[in-house]
Every structure is written in structure tokens, then in C-alpha cells.
């Protein structure tokens, strides 16, 4: 590895650990400070933290790789995600910020559900906490795998060493600094990702000899992919937005946006911002970041494909196109900064997921079933222990390199989106919704996603998931279950209705 690259990465790691030390001194004296930053984040930090924890390595590796492989026909995923994030800011962010404070100052999503519906028996809290812990542990392991492969392919380390280096740095700043450290590091990481996603496609474009449309519209796809020639996608026009895509395929791609309403590691950022009054500022910053970053990722894949075609340089792993361009186009010192952007994307999501899992283990299990009278310091200690335990289990899962981690990520996104998304929306907008409806919606949403993925059913030789993304039926059936069961059972108490109306009055 070049000395300049090593220097850039060393600076990056030092900055991340320094932020963790700063946050440790600022906000870890009580569980609210550790888990939610004391509800005092600035709109810029909260916005970039939400974006960075959302996108992970998918933004710098997955999306450019998909564009490299399929061309503009995969841009619908990016469009769906941007629209979903925009809707999340408008529909969920302000109401959730107010409601979680009104609902007995809830600091986790399961805590909010329990307080919102007076779940005195903790049924809803336990179900939602189990969903979070199981899916996020698997989700976290996918980020650990990405870090291991990055260190193996780019830095010459063993895969196993990469797992421990990636996880070790994240655990250190999350362990000591808590939510504030995660949010501040996300802010820095989001800035690094933003600059990198603009710089790489811009410089690549200046190196092209022919117009991109001409190069990719008449390309030999087999040459571009350096792959077997038995795939139908090789004959597609890369500049055709609708190439090989039916209406259902486009709906499936855009349906990724539905997942935003139910992602705990994203919507918890809405709960942490200092005031609902700064939500418009947070939304403008967050959506500007996401829109430009998504465009940069799309152009990285397209311009990278055009450059590789012009120079007869096919690559074996399409998801490394960002890495390849960084090494080809930039000085080693700058290339190190760009590699740090991928690490930033991976680490920002791992840290957020670790903290959400830790929050659920602490607040929704330990505090409820082990020590109800636990002190604030004890809860913070349990939270830190939980971070380490979840990280170790994620590393254990990541040792199996043959696991279909990317499929698990897709499934987890759909599971959260279908189980929590309708529940969050209805809980914020419909005062007639009750505990029974909430339980029904969560169970039906999660069960539908699992059935859609694993049921041994095929139509014309295709599995259900290959026909339409599982979040679509899961989200729809969850909404129906919430509505029908809530109307068929007892109305919520006057106290719950009064709290709902207080939230409405404050927002209006």
C-alpha cells in the first residue's frame, strides 16, 4: 500500500477515536444521554447522521456496482430511496420527535410503541425488541463482512484481520461515546462520503474521450463485465431506463423507499434533534445530502463503465468500481481519503445498528425483566456491554464468508419496513388505533415478508421474491391488519386519545 494512502487512513481512524473520546466526556452520564444524545443534536448533525447511518457501503459499492452491471435500468432503486427519505422527513420526523417525548420520554422505538399503546404487559415491546435484535445483528454482520473484504482487497490484510479492525474501531467510539459519538462520527463520515461521491465521477468524466451515451449505448456488455456470456442482461442498452424492466419490476425497485418508515436506526435520529422547530432545516440538509450523493453514486457506476470500455479494462468484481477508479484517478494521499469514504459508510451504519441493538437489550429487556430499579450508571454500563456482545456475535456470523449477507440485508430492510413502517405511520396519524391493531400489524407484516422469502411457492418457475419485492405485500397486509383489528376491538383509552390530541395541538 502506498505511504500516502496509509497516512490518510491513519488520520481518519485517529479522528474517529478522538470524537469518541470527546463524546465520552460530554454525554454519557445517564441513559438518555448515552442512547439518544440528550435530545439535543443540531439539525445538521442529525441530518447527516441519518443519511450516513442509512446508506452504508451500499451507496459507494452496491449502487455503483448495480449501475455498472445494469445501467440506468437500476436507477429506480435510487429514485425510490430518495422519495422514501423525503416522505419520511415530512410524515414521520416532526410527529415522532414530539410524540416520543410526550409518550413518557421514550428513547427507543419499542419503548415508544409500549408507551403509545399502554402496553402494560410488554407484549408489543418484547416482539419489537426481538425483531430489532435479530435482524440488526444480521444487518451488522453484513457491514463487518464489507469491512473485512475492503481490508483484504485494498490493504493486503487477511479477511479475518479486516473484520476485527473494522469492528474494533467502531466499538471503541460507540462503547465510550454512545449516541453522541455515533452521531458526530456519522456527521464527519457523511461529509467524507459526500465529497468522494462528487469527486470520483467528476474526475472520471473528464478522462472520457467519447460521450457517455455513445459509449454505453453501443457497448459490448460481455467485454465490460469480463463475465460468462449466458446472462440476458448482457444485451441490454445501458442507457435505457426501462431495459428489461416490467412495471412490476420498477415498482419493486422503487418500493425500497417504503422501508424508511420502519428503520429504527434512521428514525431514531428524528427523536434526537433538539427541537421540532429545526426539522425543516434538518430536512433540507438531509435531502440535499442524499439527493446529490445518490446522483454521485449513479454517475460513478455509469462513468466507470464508460471508462473501462474505452480503455479495455474489464473488472471481475463490479462492486469495486469505486475502489478501482479511486486508485486509477487520484494521488495515493487522495486515494486514501476516498478509501476512507467507504470505511466511513460501513462504520457509520455498523455503529448505528450496534447502538440500536444495545438500546433494546438495555431498555426493553434488562430494565424490564432483570432490574427495574437499575441506576442510570448501571444502565449505561449494560448498554456498553451489549455493544460488545452484539459486535462479537456479528463477527462470528461474518466468519462464514459463504453466507448470503446481501440477501439478508435486503430481507432485513423489508422486514423492518413491513413490520414497523405501517405501525409507525398509523400510530402517528390515527388516534383510533389500539394495542391489538399494533400487535396484529407488526406480526402480519413480519410474517408476510418471511413467507414471501421462504415459502416453497413459485409462479411460472419464479419465486415470490423474484416476482415482486417482499416489502410490497408485507406493507399492504400490515396496513390492512392494523385497520381491521383496531376497528374490531376496543377503542383506546381516553388518556391515550388525549395524548394524541396534545401532539396534534403542538404540531399545529
Automatic annotation (TrEMBL):
<dbReference type="InterPro" id="IPR001734">
    <property type="entry name" value="Na/solute_symporter"/>
</dbReference>
<feature type="transmembrane region" description="Helical">
    <location>
        <begin position="467"/>
        <end position="488"/>
    </location>
</feature>
<keyword id="KW-0739">Sodium transport</keyword>
<dbReference type="Pfam" id="PF00474">
    <property type="entry name" value="SSF"/>
</dbReference>
<feature type="transmembrane region" description="Helical">
    <location>
        <begin position="6"/>
        <end position="24"/>
    </location>
</feature>
<feature type="transmembrane region" description="Helical">
    <location>
        <begin position="411"/>
        <end position="430"/>
    </location>
</feature>
<feature type="transmembrane region" description="Helical">
    <location>
        <begin position="162"/>
        <end position="184"/>
    </location>
</feature>
<feature type="transmembrane region" description="Helical">
    <location>
        <begin position="437"/>
        <end position="455"/>
    </location>
</feature>
<keyword id="KW-0997">Cell inner membrane</keyword>
<feature type="transmembrane region" description="Helical">
    <location>
        <begin position="379"/>
        <end position="399"/>
    </location>
</feature>
<protein>
    <recommendedName>
        <fullName>Sodium/proline symporter</fullName>
    </recommendedName>
</protein>
<keyword id="KW-0915">Sodium</keyword>
<keyword id="KW-0472">Membrane</keyword>
<feature type="transmembrane region" description="Helical">
    <location>
        <begin position="191"/>
        <end position="208"/>
    </location>
</feature>
<dbReference type="InterPro" id="IPR011851">
    <property type="entry name" value="Na/Pro_symporter"/>
</dbReference>
<feature type="transmembrane region" description="Helical">
    <location>
        <begin position="289"/>
        <end position="309"/>
    </location>
</feature>
<keyword id="KW-0812">Transmembrane</keyword>
<keyword id="KW-1133">Transmembrane helix</keyword>
<feature type="transmembrane region" description="Helical">
    <location>
        <begin position="241"/>
        <end position="261"/>
    </location>
</feature>
<comment type="similarity">
    <text>Belongs to the sodium:solute symporter (SSF) (TC 2.A.21) family.</text>
</comment>
<keyword id="KW-0406">Ion transport</keyword>
<keyword id="KW-0769">Symport</keyword>
<dbReference type="InterPro" id="IPR050277">
    <property type="entry name" value="Sodium:Solute_Symporter"/>
</dbReference>
<dbReference type="InterPro" id="IPR018212">
    <property type="entry name" value="Na/solute_symporter_CS"/>
</dbReference>
<keyword id="KW-0813">Transport</keyword>
<comment type="function">
    <text>Catalyzes the sodium-dependent uptake of extracellular L-proline.</text>
</comment>
<feature type="transmembrane region" description="Helical">
    <location>
        <begin position="123"/>
        <end position="142"/>
    </location>
</feature>
<feature type="transmembrane region" description="Helical">
    <location>
        <begin position="75"/>
        <end position="92"/>
    </location>
</feature>
<feature type="transmembrane region" description="Helical">
    <location>
        <begin position="329"/>
        <end position="358"/>
    </location>
</feature>
<keyword id="KW-1003">Cell membrane</keyword>
<keyword id="KW-0029">Amino-acid transport</keyword>
<dbReference type="InterPro" id="IPR038377">
    <property type="entry name" value="Na/Glc_symporter_sf"/>
</dbReference>
Amino acid at each position: 500500500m502506498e505511504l500516502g494512502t496509509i497516512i490518510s487512513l491513519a488520520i481518519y481512524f485517529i479522528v474517529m477515536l478522538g470524537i469518541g473520546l470527546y463524546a465520552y466526556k460530554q454525554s454519557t452520564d445517564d441513559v438518555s444521554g448515552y442512547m439518544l444524545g440528550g435530545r439535543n443534536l443540531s439539525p445538521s448533525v442529525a441530518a447527516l447522521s441519518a443519511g450516513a447511518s442509512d446508506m452504508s457501503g451500499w451507496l459507494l459499492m452496491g449502487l455503483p456496482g448495480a449501475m455498472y452491471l445494469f445501467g440506468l435500468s437500476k436507477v429506480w432503486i435510487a429514485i425510490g430511496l430518495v422519495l422514501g427519505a423525503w416522505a419520511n422527513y415530512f410524515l414521520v420526523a416532526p410527529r415522532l420527535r414530539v410524540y416520543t417525548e410526550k409518550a413518557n420520554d421514550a428513547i427507543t422505538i419499542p419503548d415508544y410503541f409500549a408507551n403509545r399503546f399502554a402496553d402494560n404487559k410488554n407484549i408489543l415491546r418484547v416482539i419489537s425488541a426481538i425483531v430489532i435484535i435479530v435482524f440488526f445483528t444480521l444487518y451488522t454482520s453484513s457491514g463487518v463482512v464489507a469491512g473485512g473484504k475492503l481490508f483484504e482487497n485494498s490493504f493486503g490484510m487477511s479477511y479475518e484481520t479486516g473484520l476485527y479492525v473494522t469492528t474494533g474501531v467502531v466499538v471503541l467510539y460507540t462503547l465510550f461515546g454512545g449516541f453522541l459519538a455515533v452521531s458526530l462520527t456519522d456527521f464527519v463520515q457523511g461529509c467524507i462520503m459526500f465529497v468522494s461521491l462528487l469527486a470520483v465521477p467528476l474526475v472520471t468524466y473528464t478522462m472520457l474521450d467519447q460521450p457517455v451515451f455513445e459509449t454505453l449505448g453501443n457497448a459490448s456488455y460481455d467485454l465490460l463485465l469480463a463475465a460468462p456470456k449466458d446472462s440476458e442482461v448482457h444485451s441490454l442498452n445501458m442507457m435505457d431506463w426501462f431495459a428489461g424492466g416490467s412495471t412490476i419490476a420498477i415498482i419493486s425497485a422503487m418500493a425500497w423507499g417504503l422501508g424508511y418508515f420502519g428503520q429504527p436506526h434512521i428514525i431514531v435520529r428524528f427523536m434526537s434533534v433538539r427541537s421540532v422547530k429545526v426539522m425543516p432545516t434538518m430536512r433540507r440538509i438531509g435531502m440535499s445530502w442524499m439527493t446529490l450523493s445518490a446522483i454521485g453514486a449513479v454517475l460513478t457506476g455509469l462513468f466507470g463503465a464508460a471508462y473501462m470500455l474505452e480503455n479495455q479494462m474489464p473488472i471481475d468484481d463490479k462492486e469495486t468500481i469505486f475502489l478501482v477508479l479511486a486508485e486509477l484517478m487520484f494521488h495515493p494521499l487522495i486515494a486514501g481519503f476516498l478509501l476512507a469514504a467507504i470505511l466511513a459508510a460501513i462504520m457509520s451504519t455498523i455503529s448505528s445498528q450496534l447502538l440500536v441493538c444495545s438500546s433494546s437489550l438495555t431498555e426493553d429487556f434488562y430494565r424490564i425483566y432483570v432490574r427495574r430499579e437499575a441506576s442510570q450508571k448501571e444502565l449505561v454500563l449494560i448498554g456498553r456491554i451489549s455493544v460488545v456482545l452484539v459486535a462479537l456475535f456479528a463477527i462470528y456470523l461474518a466468519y462464514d464468508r459463504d453466507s448470503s449477507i446481501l440477501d439478508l440485508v435486503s430481507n432485513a430492510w423489508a422486514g423492518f419496513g413491513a413490520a414497523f413502517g405501517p405501525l409507525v405511520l398509523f400510530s402517528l396519524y390515527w388516534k383510533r388505533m389500539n394495542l391489538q391493531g399494533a400487535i396484529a400489524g407488526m406480526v402480519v407484516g413480519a410474517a408476510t415478508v418471511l413467507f414471501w422469502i421462504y415459502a416453497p411457492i413459485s409462479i411460472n418457475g419464479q419465486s415470490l421474491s423474484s416476482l415482486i419485492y417482499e416489502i410490497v405485500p408485507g406493507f399492504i397486509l400490515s396496513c390492512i391488519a392494523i385497520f381491521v383489528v383496531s376497528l374490531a376491538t376496543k377503542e383506546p383509552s381516553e388518556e391515550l386519545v388525549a395524548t394524541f390530541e396534545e401532539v396534534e395541538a403542538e404540531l399545529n
